[in-house]
Write a structure and sequence with these properties.
It is a single chain. The protein is mostly beta strands. It has a single domain (about 5-100), classed as Polysaccharide lyase family 8-like, C-terminal (Chondroitinase Ac, Chain A, domain 3, Sandwich), CATH 2.60.220. Helix content is about 0%, strand content about 55%. The protein is built from no helices and eleven strands. A six-stranded antiparallel beta sheet has the order 1-2-5-6-11-8, with no helix packed on it. Strands 3-4-7-10-9 form a five-stranded antiparallel beta sheet, with no helix packed on it.
């Protein structure tokens, strides 16, 4: 995808989806509530998934991310990341005050 709302690239064989959202939007089943950058890497050890979220524009206090796959549990998550398990799992990421730093979680 490459339009006014999102620029994204997916490498399916590598299990990677990288997207920068300029505003709330959706791409490849991934949805976000506001401007942010998201990297999803599937196929980690034991079938896990790693998700990294940042707000390089420093405009948001929180970003909600809806994931395009089920989340059964959390392996590890930064203190700034709340994970929602379920058929359409998701994250709420507290990006405010982090000066554009990356916030991550490893899921299964």
């Amino acid at each position: 995808a490459n339009d006014a709302g999102v620029q994204a690239v997916e490498a399916r064989r590598a299990g990677l989806l990288a997207a920068h959202f300029w505003r709330p939007g959706r791409v490849g089943g991934l949805a976000v509530s506001g401007p942010c950058t998201v990297l999803v890497r599937r196929g980690q050890r034991g079938g896990g998934v790693s998700v990294a979220v940042a707000d390089p524009g420093r405009t948001e206090s929180t970003v909600d991310v809806e994931l395009p796959f089920p989340v059964r549990g959390v392996v590890r998550a930064d203190d700034s990341v709340s994970v929602r398990a379920g058929r359409r799992g998701g994250l709420t990421v507290r990006v405010g005050g982090s000066r554009g730093h990356t916030h991550g979680a490893e899921l299964r």
